Amino acid sequence: MFALITAGLAASSLRMTDILATQEHLWFVVTMPVAFVVFVASAAAFAFWGPFAAPAGPDIAGGVTSELSGVDRLLVEAGRAVFLGASAAMAAALFLGGDSGPWLPGPLWHLLKTLAVVAALIWVGRRMPVLRPDRTVEVGWMVLVPLTLLQALVVAVLVLNGFYA
Q1: How many domains does the chain have?
Q2: What distance in Å separates the CA atoms of residue 93 and residue 22, rounded to the nearest whole number?
Q3: Which of 6, 33, 127, 133 is the most exposed place for a label (fewest CB within 10 A)?
Q4: pLDDT category, 55, cuts 50, 70, 90?
Q5: H or E segment to which residue 53 belongs
Q6: What pLDDT is attached to residue 47?
Q7: Burial class (CB in 10 A: 0-12, 13-18, 19+), 123
Q8: CA–CA dist 64, 60 (Å, integer)
Q9: How many other CB atoms are there within 10 angstroms of residue 4's CB atom?
Q10: Considering the domain boundaries, does residue 165 fall inside one?
Q11: Rounded CA gap, 164 and 114, in Å?
């Protein structure tokens, strides 16, 4: 939520059209890299994906998916994939300017940015070890929450100075 609020703070609105309009000249990822990373990492953690896959990991007990097979397992895995895709699309809109870009039509730009975020998630997710849930929570509370609050403070100062106007 802090990542979402930071983007809304810069746009002075939580409406997506206003957030996209504010990014017409400079994407939010430039001034809000921490919020972007936290948003994407939170989406991956919510889907138990990549380094956050411990609850659904292939351990001896099978995790949260141990009782699933067949169509049920397919639906859960498809839901996780759809959630990651939707989160990547939202990240592209919130932090990468959505459909803004030269030469190509707007929807194609948004699709390309979404695919780039998904590709980055896959690339990073395959190279990081799976984190234990207690370590994930510890990093979240001790590192990510203070960093996102600091990011929101920096954006608030930029808003007060008229940077996004």
Answers
A1: 1
A2: 11
A3: 127
A4: low
A5: none
A6: 73
A7: exposed
A8: 12
A9: 15
A10: no
A11: 24
